[in-house]
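wait is this the right file?? whatever heres the structure
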């Protein structure tokens, strides 16, 4: 948990903050891969049969990806099976 100071959210738990920052970095790499392939969030959400909101939550690290979702996105974005952990599971 944390507290809000003005418009800045301050995390009380340093480990949680660091985990969120790691997720943001990993998901930024995923977004970069999407951009290179010319795939928008909207396109990917339709391809995945997810709502745009659900995909956005996953890309922002608020909820996790299921293994099946990671594998499907990997196929769509040409991510090697061995690299899926790096993009999706903080490996």
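ok assuming it is, sequence goes like this
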């Amino acid at each position: 948990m944390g507290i809000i100071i003005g418009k800045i959210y301050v995390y009380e738990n340093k480990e949680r903050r660091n985990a969120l920052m790691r997720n943001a970095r990993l998901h930024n790499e995923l977004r970069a891969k999407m951009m290179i392939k010319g795939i928008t969030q909207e396109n990917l959400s339709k391809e995945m049969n997810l709502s745009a909101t659900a995909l956005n939550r996953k890309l922002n690290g608020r909820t996790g990806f299921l293994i099946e979702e990671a594998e499907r996105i990997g196929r769509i974005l040409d991510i090697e099976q061995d690299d899926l952990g790096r993009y999706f599971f903080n490996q």
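Helices lie at 14-37, 41-48, 52-59, 67-76, 84-88. so i think its the right one actually
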